[in-house]
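Appendix B. Chain record.
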Amino acid sequence: MKFISTRGKGSVTGAEAVVRGIAEDGGLYVPECFPPVTGEEFEAMLGMDYPERAALVLKKYFEEYDGEKLLSALRSAYQKFEGDDPAPLVRIDEGLYLLELFHGPTCAFKDMALTVFPYLLKEGCALTGVKEKLLIPVATSGDTGKAALEGFAGTDVKIAVFYPEEGISKMQKLQMCTQDGDNVDVVGVRGNFDDCQTAVKKIFSSEACVSAFKERGYLLSAANSINFGRLAPQICYYFSAYCDLVTSGQVKMGEKVDFAVPTGNFGNILAAYYAKRMGLPVNKLVCASNKNNVLTEFWRTGIYETKRPFFRTMSPSMDILVSSNLERLIFELAGRDAKLTKERMAQLASTGRYTVKGEELKNFKSEFYAGCTSEDDTVDCIYEFFTEYGYPLDTHTGVAMHVVEAYHDRLKKEFLEKPPMVVVCTASPYKFPQDVLYALTGNDVKDSFKGVKRINLLTAMKVPDPIKAVRYKPIRFKTVVSPDKIFDELLKFIKE
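Structure tokens predicted for this chain:
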């Protein structure tokens, strides 16, 4: 399997795509084709455990990786999760299911990929003959940073995480700033996630910056979902969820289902789209946004417009205006026209907008339903869902569930059949304890751990061990910089 850039330059192996992270022309690597999962393979997957299912899917993209080593790495990664199944599917009601992706070391869905990614990167270096030391700068809206830190802590890879100082939850900040490991750095940034992401991308695309690190013996790589090695493991849990629906008798093999995904950087829902392209029976992908509704407006109008008000919300991992992975979808909708994709990304960089029209927009609407929700509606949804089902949603899944309700209302008005719905549950409610407690009770608390305790008393949901552990850990990282100082901070980090 070869990988090509969304902007047209070059063709590389899977291992090279993982090690490089971003293409030389600034584009994102995509597979030259979508490898199908055959009927026989689907039948075989029904009897597999999660690591075996994931190995089958990943091997289709990373053909040069040894299959036995890959499976062993997956088993090792998912042993770090609480429970026997790293991605359990929970039946809530007739035709409604939650895919729980928060049982990993950092209690968020990013663990599903970032516990595996260090192996993919290390093996990729071995396969491509890379001898340099690796430096991974990560821009995070809250969850990717901690998951990446946890995945690489204690290794010979240096990883520096940059987060919006005022744009994440207190618990997310605590998790990152108390991280162990001599090879890690955590830095707050004055600005929002888009400021962090733009600054890090500029470093990757700057020959001067890349050369500066190379002179010091370091090769840059990426650990967020712009790296296909981070994105690919996310494809796997959509296949696994569908297999669980079939084996439990909820659907018949081949019956189509909907997936709803709380969406910020567009990586998680893009993975679902890729699964569909590989043959997963998906009817509609529901793209759920919070008050930062740039994706909803794009779906409705075909205009992607980033010059708009930015809002800090109770679902901070979705507080994003520049959704990086949308570039991969734009590439597909444009018939894999790299020249057009490059032009649109140039327009986005220079004017803050681009437009999709005609057949492309029609195709987008046929594949996706997009909706957004206000803060008040998210609070109401979390409260009502707990009242009806006794299940406490985190703030991001609360956004998705509210959009699902609007989507189902639309289907009802249009007299359309309602397929089974799987809502992707992206984080533990204990990662956002103050906001979840407020939604459930109307009470405000300033201390995160008081919120954790009260949610536990109210819901009886087990407090994850990683949340308990962070309470008494010392804060190691307190540095805060402006976005234009991120490069200097990275130089300082590798020098130290």
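Further analysis of this model is presented in Appendix C.
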